[in-house]
Write a structure and sequence with these properties.
The complex is a heterodimer of chains A (about 140) and B (about 80). Chain A is built from three helices and eight strands; from the N terminus they run βαββαβββαββ. With about 140 residues, chain A is of the alpha+beta class. Chain A has a four-stranded mixed sheet, with helices on both faces. A four-stranded antiparallel sheet of chain A has the order 5-3-7-8. Chain A has a single domain, classed as Aldehyde Oxidoreductase, domain 3. The longest helix of chain A is centred in the middle third of the chain and has 18 residues. In chain B, a hairpin with a 2-residue loop joins strand 4 and strand 5. In chain B, about 20% of the residues lie in helices and about 35% in strands. Chain B is of the alpha+beta class. Chain B has one domain: Ubiquitin-like (UB roll), CATH 3.10.20. Classes of the chains: A alpha+beta (about 140), B alpha+beta (about 80). Chains A and B meet through strand 3, helix 2, helix 3 and strand 7 of A and loops of B.
């Protein structure tokens, strides 16, 4: 499965990639484009080769910390309308604690490390680069 | 003199006026020296912060990281993925 896509994210595909009979707990995190003042969508861009490598490193770290867990993520790029997902992470593990912990680890590291940038698109046609905020 | 590839992303690409180029610097050198040269060659990038995020060969590094001929330095605006 590709980590970066320009198409809507299919959560079913992500779930299928992580779930198995021995993994009894699965959690999914979705990040969706929010309707902040007059925002109609966000144009996501990335240093794609580096982002791919960084995602591979983050997933490998999660696997090292929680060997029983399997985690996959997809980040969508290009223009994403309000309400649609820009990122989806699915984590499955034998028990829920590991699934939640692995999923949380991956989204927090993505926020810190992924070379991805957002440009907000507004209803009046204006555009604005988004600088990082530490909202959680 | 060594040739260093330089990549610009997002707002920094707008400041530089391009997404990819190269600069010539005395090597071995550091990421900070490459950035100083970039500010001379692409004056728009003087609007970047004093210590921008940078990646060397696709890994984030500190600005004192050593750079040699053929390396790639990428200048990264504040990250906002997810």
């Amino acid at each position: 499965m590709m980590h970066l896509t320009r198409h809507p994210i299919d959560v079913g595909d992500l779930l299928a990639a992580v779930q198995s009979a021995e993994r009894g707990g699965t959690c999914v995190f979705l990040g969706t484009v929010r309707n902040d003042a007059d925002v109609t969508g966000i144009d996501y861009s990335a240093y794609e080769a580096m982002a791919f490598e960084e995602i591979e490193r983050i997933l490998a770290e999660a696997h090292e910390c929680w060997p029983g867990a399997r985690v996959m993520l997809q980040h969508r790029l290009g223009v994403i309308p309000v309400g649609e997902a820009s990122i989806a992470i699915a984590a499955a593990a034998p028990h829920r604690d590991e699934a939640f912990a692995a999923c949380r680890y991956v989204i927090e590291e993505v926020k810190k490390r992924l070379p991805v940038w957002k440009k907000e698109l507004r209803a009046d046609g204006s555009e604005q680069w988004v600088e990082a905020h530490d909202h959680r | 003199m060594g040739k260093i590839s330089v990549r610009f992303f997002a707002r920094y690409a707008e400041l530089a006026g391009c997404t990819w180029s190269h600069v010539n610097v005395d090597t071995p050198t550091t990421v900070a020296e490459v950035i100083a040269r970039v500010r001379e060659v692409f004056p728009g990038t003087q609007a970047m912060p004093a210590t921008p995020l940078a990646a060397l060969n696709q890994r984030q590094v500190k600005l004192d990281a050593p750079v040699t001929e053929g390396d790639e330095v990428a200048l990264l605006p504040p990250l906002s993925g997810g």
